[in-house]
Backbone:
């Protein structure tokens, strides 16, 4: 089985989330990106507690593509320090995992 991961990032604007998602899918770096929101984020930044409305992207891809996905997010993301977290997919439907591997196979 191909090692599959989900990568999460958040953006302040829907348009930024859509721009990142579109590029990742069009370039074959992700099989699917789900955009949810707005969500409310509460976090510490530069010594202060902040609250923001954000859009969350859940990126489905192969672990072998992580570095390229991270580079793409960083180059298109407006935040100074964007959230980029990868989590392994432990199990999943064989048909879905096969589709995901095929959708990102071109790289």
Residues:
């Amino acid at each position: 089985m191909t090692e599959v991961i989900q990568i999460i990032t958040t953006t302040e604007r829907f348009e930024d989330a859509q721009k990142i998602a579109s590029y990742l899918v069009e370039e074959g770096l992700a099989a699917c990106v789900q955009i949810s929101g707005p969500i409310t984020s509460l976090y510490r930044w530069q010594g202060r507690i902040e609250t923001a409305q954000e859009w969350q992207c859940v990126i489905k891809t192969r672990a072998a593509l992580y570095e390229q996905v991270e580079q793409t997010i960083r180059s298109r993301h407006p935040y100074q320090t964007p959230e980029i977290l990868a989590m392994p997919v432990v199990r999943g439907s064989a048909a879905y995992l096969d589709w995901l591997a095929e959708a990102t196979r071109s790289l």
